What does this fold into?
Amino acid sequence: MNKYQFILAGALLFGSATLTTAQTDTKAVVEQATQIIKAKGADYEKQVKDLYKEYKKNPSALIAIGRAFYNNKEYEKATQFADYALAKDSKNADAFLLKGDVCVSNDDAGGASQNYQQAIYFAPKNPEGYYKYAMILRGRNPEDAVATLEDLRKQVPDYPVDALAARIYYHTKNPNLQKAAEYYGKVADVTKMEDNDIKDYATIEWMLGDKDKSIEVAKAGLSKNPKWNTLNRLVFWNSTDKNYTDQALEYADRLFNKSDSVTITADDYAYYGTALKQAKRFDEAVDAYNKSLASLDADANAIVSKPILYKSLSDVYNEKGDFDKALEYVEKSIDAKENPSFSDYNSLGSQYIEIATKRHKAGDKAGAIAAYKKADATYAKLTEKYPDQANFINYVRGSIQSALDPESTQGLAKPFYEALAASLEQKADRSDNQTAMLKTAYQYMIVYEFNVKKNKAAAKQWAEKMLAVDPTNEIAKQVHAM
It folds into this structure.
């Protein structure tokens, strides 16, 4: 179904749950017509004519027969019986509604609009015409569609127009989530809305990033049906995102074990892994993330991806203190991407540095050195690939080399800080962050020249540069005064 057909079909799909056509009791007529349609005997056309003859004086019955044809996709006969009804009662709104529905099914938006407008004209207090006409308009102009519903509000003040308007803004080719949320927010009692509206409202707030509101709406829906899988999922996901760990785990249990007709997805397992990580239940988190990985190939709609899951596993192992595994999975997260970005590689390098720092604090000197060297190798590869990031790369590599050479005796950081200083000191539009990096470079060079090389003249030159950007720097003032 293309987008145009979807917009038209909405006039039927979204009206069916809320709206009912005013009609007399025609159940027996419908059953009679349906039997004829289903049987489709050799004298089918004669039986259809006999139906007309039997009920030709009863517009409601004729429309009911037309509906039976419509429901069985016999649109020509459905229109024929609607016209029979109009021949008897030219102001019959239900006949125009039936003709409009046939036009929708035939992708005739113009015809549908005309018939629905006629239905509104002849039955101004019947919501169905307004709603179906609005659903046609939403494809072209949602504002006009909502204006039609506002006309309905004037005729039937207590009708749930706000929820319908929200549907208009949400179920359109280019959804306006803000407007949909605004109209849903006007409904005084969420629990009085239809189930699809509650689900949509909670989902929209999740998509807009208002996690707490999404939780509030979902919980309102769950008060009607505690086993509602979509709403249990939304409370679970939102609570995980908000670090409401206990609540996240509670609703994870509701989703996994206490919801109706639930299919657990790769995203569910991924969120569960994150909630377990927040609870410091690291082994269970690893198991959940691995289940998410195993589910990915069969889950075409998954939001989560292998790179994200590998990075999540790396974070778990890092918190757990298994640094080798942490490094293994952060490398996998990069390898799993088709086109890793600078941010990805920077994340990898930062992970190496973080692990190196933890190993150093734990007394694992060799492990720390190995991690620092991997970090440096990562940034070294980026120098040519991302020349616009040269200053940042030199700053980070200088910091890494300073960690590898804490007394500066080998001057390992010197070339990086010299390059950083040469690039930034003439830059007129330095940011505060760049000035901070420049001061770090100057500080290193002052100490290196004064303490290691014993070159006071060179140290004073660097001190002068430091004082130009930071007149209060005590080390620079002391060296410069010598």
